[in-house]
Amino acid sequence: MVSGQLTSSIQKHASERKYNFCSGPALLPLAILEQAQVDMLSYKGSGIGIMELSHRSALFTGLIEEARSRILNLLGLDSDFEVIFFQGGATLQFSALPLNFIDDNGFGAYIVNGHWSKKAFQLASQVRSAKIIWEPTTTNSEKVPTETKIALDKGAAFLHYTSNETIDGIEFHQEIVSSDAPVICDASSNILTRPIDPDNFDLIYASAQKNLGPSGLTVSIIRKSFLDKCRGTDIPLLDYRAMAQNHSLLNTPNTWAIYLVNSVCKWIEDQGGVEKMHALARQRSEMIYEVIDNSDGFYQNRIPEESRSRVNVVFHLPTKELEEAFLGEAEKQGFYGLAGHRSVGGIRASMYNPFPPEGAQKLSEFMKDFAAEFADF
Ligand code: PMP
Fold it and tell me: Going by CA atoms, what residue is nearest to atom 12 of ligand 1?
C-alpha cells in the first residue's frame, strides 16, 4: 500500500473561491471538484487514481461509454448519432471539418457573424474551398440571419455556424436549417444550455472548457449518415472515420477531461437536465441585461435584443477610465475574469452551466451601486 503525508485544508481553499466570470476555462461545480479530489487518489475503490488509470482498462472504457451516453441523452439524441472525443480544442476542428467533409469540387458554406465563426472560415479556407454565405452588414443592425432556412448553391458540402459568439456576445436563438447541405454547429459556448431539435443538426462540436468541463477536450457529436460521407484525411487523429471506428481511443485521450465531462453531465442531470440549464441561463443573463437596460446608457450593450447571448453578457461603460475603475473595484469585491476579450475591450460576464445564479445577482447589485456612484462623472 502506498501512503504519504496528506494535508487537509480543503475547507479553507473552498472558502477562497471567487465568482469566476471567465470565458473559459470556467468555473466548475464545487461538488465535482470535491469528488475529483477523492477520485484522484482512488477511482471507484480501485486503488488507482483517475489520472493514473489506463485508457484501455475496463474502468476507463466504462467511463468513456458513460460520458458518451450521458451527452446523447442530455441532448435528446439517439443511436443515429455518434460522440467522438478529440484533442486540440474547437480550433483544431476548424481545420479537421473541411479536411474530412469537403472534396475537391465542393465548398464549405459559412455564416460569419463574430470572432470564432470568422476564425473557422479562415482556417477552412487554408485547407479547402470555403465561402461566406451570410455576414452582418453595416447598413442594418442584424447580427444573425432573420431567415433561418438557408438556401445554398450546388456543391455546398456543409453549412457551418457558431451558435454563440463568445467574444461578441451574440447568440442564435433559433436553429439554422438547410435542405441543401448538412448543418455543422460550433456550440462551444452554449452546448447543453438549452434543448435542441435533433433534426436540425448533423454535427455539433464544442470545446469542453465552458459548459462541459476542463480544457483539452473537444466533444463532437455527428449524425451517422453524415459520418458515412466522411472522405477521411491522412492525419489519423483528425480523421472522423478512424476516430469513430476506434471509439476515440486511437491514441491516449485526455482521460482526466473525459472523467470531468462525465461528472459535469451527471451534475446537469441531477440539477434537472438541459431544461433547467436553459432556465438558469435566462435567469442569470436577464439579471445583468436588466441593469444594463435601466442604466440610462451608463452600461451599453450594442447587440439587438433578439440575438443577445445568455452566456456571455458584454457591455461597455462611457469611458475607458470608468471601465478600468469598474474592473478594479469588481476584483476587490471578489468578482474575477470580467474584462472583455483583448480584441474588443469592455466588460464580459461569462456565465455557463455551472455558474451559480447568486453570482449574477451579486454582480447586478455591484453594477447598480457602481452606476449610482459614477453615473454623473
Ligand atoms: N469556438 C468558440 C465559440 C469559442 O468560444 C472558442 C474558444 N473560446 C473556440 C471556438 C476555440 O476553442 P479552443 O480554444 O478550445 O480551440
Answer: 90
